[in-house]
Amino acid sequence: MKIATFNINGIKARYPALCDWLDEAQPDVALLQEIKSVDENFPRELFEERGYNVETHGQKSFNGVAILSKLPLEDLRRGLPGDDSDEQARWIEATVVGDKGALRLCGLYLPNGNPVELQDGLPTPGGKYAYKLSWMARLEARARELLAGEEPFLMAGDYNIIPQDEDAARPEVWQEDALARPESRAAFRRLMNLGFTEAFRARVSGGGHYSFWDYQAGAWNRNDGIRIDHFLLSPACADTLIDCQIDKDIRGREKPSDHVPVWVELDI
Hints:
The chain is α+β, with helices and mostly antiparallel strands.
């Protein structure tokens, strides 16, 4: 089973590039972020005619996540639990059944967290960085719940986290950014320490591997990128991992997203 994650940075602007990539890559499942569309305006027919079942958790002009799946989607859930007042559309999960069993899919768009606002060295309550860290705490709580169920699952998407310095072309410029600050990285490590496998690093080592290049200052041409789109696999899911790669060349095409697809192949 081939499963991809792709922050498309707006379905309205990016659907031609997305459809071209789907036709070439033929993923069984695609987890999308930043669709920037309410559910009723999402062009689901473009994907249904390609054989995909479509589920969205949209929001006008901002955020929004979706699942495209050639397999039926069961037990759909929208929204990350833990804060009923959170109206941002950043989480969607469902189960698919492969040839060898069921797999729980969790698609996420983790908050960026900038600007970093601090008060006495701590994130300012109500600020964007405080929201990012509280969201990550809720993510950890949901991960613990899913791990307790012992069924194979993965959590994939735009994490807005640069895990280590080797995941940035110029790590020095990110030191005080919400994507790489110590609190952000510590929250990511706490998640990893629950027993997850970071799929890309299980297959590829070293620097120079990125999934995001800013539109500004010729970042793509200079390969000034960062790796912030990740697959975290539960222990039972990690046992099925065959490969994980980044489709880097997509960034050089016409009207691209600033992210590129990352995909895993699983024996499931």
